[in-house]
Amino acid sequence: MAGVANSASISPNEEENELRKGPWTLDEDTLLIHYIENHGEGHWNALAKCAGLKRTGKSCRLRWLNYLKPDIKRGNLTPQEQLLILELHSKWGNRWSKIAQHLPGRTDNEIKNYWRTRVQKQARQLNIESNSQRFLDAVRCFWMPTLRQKMEQTSLSLDPSPSPSSYLTSHISAAPTPPPPSKMVSHVSDYSLIGNSCPSHNSPSESLISQLPQIPEQPASSSYAFEALNDSYYVDYDMGGLVLDPVSEMASFDASQFDCQMTESDWMSNNYMTDTLWNMQGM
DNA sequence: AATCTTGTCAACCGCGTCCCA
DNA sequence: ATGGGACGCGGTTGACAAGAT
Question: Count of domains in chain A?
């Protein structure tokens, strides 16, 4: 690594060339913004020097792309965005940059942080690997359907005028009616293609993925059998948080609306989902 | 009120890929 | 063909804030 700031014994000349690290100051931000406004982005190492920034080009690029760029969207991820992240992650894995290309205004860093802090947290609470098939199935069967329901609810009350998230909602409203639910889905990849994953979620659309431009995929994950129905859970989504409790906790729950099960590995119906409430608050 | 724990997110780091001389 | 610089990506770290004890 090139020089690091705050080193004790450096000559004045070295100090002159010392590269700064850590949080950016307002002055640095201003310098970078003004320089890019006048000269455009790219050639980051040269840019850093010419702009008078004591930063690496790499640091300048990161600061611009993740924070200063004008079209960066701030604030919590919408249910649409969360759902899209889940779907695209199930399709592409940790290809954050690729996923971010489909979420205008969101950065790969933001999506990555979302996944690590919110999604992986749930895996820890379930005591399963976040990259395991089990967890992916849980995401498809519980989380994604609930987000779809949330999207449907919000779209009903949405002002018809375009909004920053209209990229997604427009796709949703234009989507065809999903096929009848299948009782037997033999492969996880089939799940993704069907879009509504576990059947019966009254989704307003097919998978968001199917609405996106075709991009070459990695091979499908290992096959996994799902079939009949044997348990249900109450799902509550509130202010960006999901709480999944056993249906017994919620007398008014309509089990027919949430009927994903599996028999081969019946983990959700007992050990994990009943003993450990799947608390998705903050998601 | 003080301390500890947990969550969030900006930033850094290492590595792989691309491009050009 | 290849070596080096620039760039981009994904993983990780660390500072700070918020919540819990």
Answer: 2
* d(CA A110, C1' B8) / Å: 11
Strand C nucleotides within a 7 Å radius of protein CB atoms: 5-12, 15
Q: How far is the CA of A216 from the C1' of C5 (A)?
A: 30
Q: What angle do CA A63, A107, A145 make, to 5 degrees?
A: 160
Q: Which nucleotide's C1' is closest to A93 (Cα)?
A: C10
pLDDT in tens, A198-239: 443 434 344 555 555 444 433 333 333 222 223 333 333 333
Question: Containing domain of residue A55, as a range?
Answer: 12-68
pLDDT tens digits along A133-158: 777 777 777 777 777 777 777 766 65
Q: pLDDT value at position A245?
A: 34
Distance A117 CA to B6 C1' (A): 11
As a whole number of angstroms, the distance between CA A100 and CA A112 comes to 9
Q: Is residue A163 part of a domain?
A: no
CA of A276 to C1' of B13 (A): 37
User: CB neighbours (10 Å) of residue A219?
Assistant: 6
Footprint of strand B on the protein (CB under 7 A): A 1, 4, 20-24, 55, 58-59, 62-63, 66-67, 109-110, 112-114, 116-118, 121, 282
Vertex A174 angle, CA A171 and A175, to 5°: 85
In this structure, the answer to whether residues A150 and A262 fall within a common structural domain is yes
Does any domain span residue A275? yes
Find how far residue A91's CA is from the centre of its chain: 12
The CATH number linked to A49 is 1.10.10.60
Tell me if A129 is assigned to some domain. yes
